[in-house]
Write a structure and sequence with these properties.
- With 66 residues, the protein is an all-alpha fold.
- The protein has one domain.
- Helices cover 70% and strands 0% of the residues.
- The protein contains three helices and no strands.
- Helix 1 packs across helix 3.
- The longest helix is centred in the C-terminal third of the chain and has 23 residues.
Length: 66
């Protein structure tokens, strides 16, 4: 049986995943994700999460350089 092994997430991946869940919660989508998984989200909902993640990541990087 050739299943894929789960590898340990890097700290960056863990941080990104945490941010994704946080934003989904802020948008009122967390329960939908918990019940049906990320695939249950529409393209619009997924894009909104991705856009906000990018915006927050940029803000964090700008604050680090100051």
């Amino acid at each position: 049986m050739g299943g894929q092994q789960k590898r340990e997430m890097t700290p960056e991946e863990k941080q990104r995943e945490q941010l994704k869940y946080e934003i989904a919660g802020e948008l009122g989508l967390l329960e939908k994700v918990k019940a049906n998984g990320w695939k249950a989200l529409s393209a619009k909902e997924t894009g909104r999460i991705g856009g906000l993640m990018t915006k927050r990541k940029k803000e964090l990087e700008e604050n680090k350089t100051i």
